[in-house]
Every structure is written in structure tokens, then in C-alpha cells.
Amino acid sequence: MTRSFAAPAIALAALMAPVTAPAQPSFDCGAARTATERAICASPDLASLEMRMVGVYDDLADRIGEAEARRIADIQLERRRACNGDAACIERQLLTTIGIFRAEAAAATRVAESEADAADEDLAELRAALGQGQGQAQFQGQAPVVASAEDEDATRNAARRHATFEAAFKALPDYQRRHVQGRLRDAGLLEGPVDGIWGDASAQALDRFLRAARGRGIAFMALRPEGAAAALRYIGSDLFFYDYIPEAAR
């Protein structure tokens, strides 16, 4: 009778194989409260994806600051919680969040790299919008710009600014476009619908916001895509909420 060693050999190999711990998410699964958190804890793939998201978030926070990164992350967290434990939905939202974090980080990097090159253009636009001909003479050693030339520059810059903001606005997801319009409306700057659609009312509201921001010492590169994107992010931030929206509208 021939003895078979196949089964014991397989069993021995299984015992000697290294044990790999399942992937863990960034949070304590023992304290998981929501259906979405429990679903992530139950799936090594989702847990691994969640950890990837956290890594991308850390890079974003380094680039734009913890407060602004947290604001962006909180919006995505609510959408993830709305999946209510649906694994496929959670996976989609995690992937979407990673993409948003990377896009925001890339935009912040482009802004930082272009600030030096855009300084002169921004200064010229700001002075034209404010009609500061004497300011131009002071910094450039030239005679004051006549009013008609300032008006022409302001009109030309307004058209460029509106086109730049329109492109940045339309690049946002629908819910973010409505969020921006809602913030502007609550601040008393938008006289129009909150429908996620760009129009004259939105353009005029953003002009009012830019003037108000300048009055507070805040200037955006409003003629550049990076500046328009930064202004829209600011409108959605906690800083705008507390600085511009009356308590009665909060």
C-alpha cells in the first residue's frame, strides 16, 4: 500500500506561508459608527483605497493648508456617507475623491508657480479696475493714465475676467456651481437664481465679490484660470462664510 504525502505537504506549506494582515483603513474599525465605515472595514480593498485617499489628502493639505483641505474633504465625506454601506458606491466615491484631491493639489501648484510671472499683470488689472492712474505713475515712473484709457482697460479686463471665471465655473461639478451661487446669494452679492448655470447675474455677483475682497485687502489673479479657480474655492470656504454672510443667513 502506497502512502500519499500530498495532503500533509499542502497542509505544511499552508502553515509555513507568511500570514498577511488584511488592509486597515485610516480610522479605528472598533469605533466604526456609520454603515459606510463598517463596509470599508469589512473590505480589504476598500480599506486599501481609503488609505490611498488619505495619502493624497495629506499632500493636498501640505499645499493649500489644513482648513481648506478639510473643507474640500468634508464635502466628499458626506457624499461617501450617503452611499449607506453600498460597496460599489463607496468605491466610486473614494476614486472620485482621490481625483478631486489630486486636481486641487495640481491647481494649487500651478498657482504658486505662476504668481511671480503674473504679479505685473495682476497689478495692472487691479489698478485699472480701481482707476489708480496716480499709482501707475508712482510705480512705473510714467504720467497718470487718462480716464478714457482707464475705462477702456477696465472694460477689456472685465470681458477677459468674465470669460476666465465662466470657464472656471463651468469646470466645477454641478453641486459645486450651485454651492458657489448659494454662498454669493447668502452674502447679498448674487441677484439671480441658484441653478448652477453661468449668466450675467453670476458674472456681476463675482465682480461684486472681487471688489469687496479688494476692500478687505484680498486680491485674486482674476485674469488667469488659476486665480479664478482660487476665488471660487475661497467663496466655498469657511473664511468666506464667516466674513461675508450675515448671521441671519447662516
General description of the model:
- There is one protein chain.
- This protein is mainly α.
- Residues 1-17 and 126-151 have low confidence and may be disordered.
- Helix 2 (35-42) crosses helix 3 and helix 5 (87-130) crosses helix 10 (225-235).
- 72% of the residues lie in helices and 0% in strands.
- The chain has helices at 6-16, 35-42, 44-64, 66-81, 87-130, 133-140, 147-170, 174-186, 200-215, 225-235, 238-244.
Brief digest:
Helices cover 72% and strands 0% of the residues. It contains eleven helices and no strands.
How is the topology of this model organized?
Blueprint: H1 6-16, H2 35-42, H3 44-64, H4 66-81, H5 87-130, H6 133-140, H7 147-170, H8 174-186, H9 200-215, H10 225-235, H11 238-244
Helix pairs in contact: 2-3, 3-4, 3-5, 4-5, 5-10, 7-10
Task: Estimate the helix proportion, in percent.
Answer: over 70%
The tally of beta strands, per DSSP, is 0
Distance between the termini: 86 Å
Please tell me what the overall shape is. Answer: elongated
Q: What is the residue-mean pLDDT, rounded to a whole number? A: 78
Element pattern in H and E: HHHHHHHHHHH
Structural class designation: mainly alpha
What key attributes describe this structure?
elongated, mainly alpha, 250 residues, 11 helices
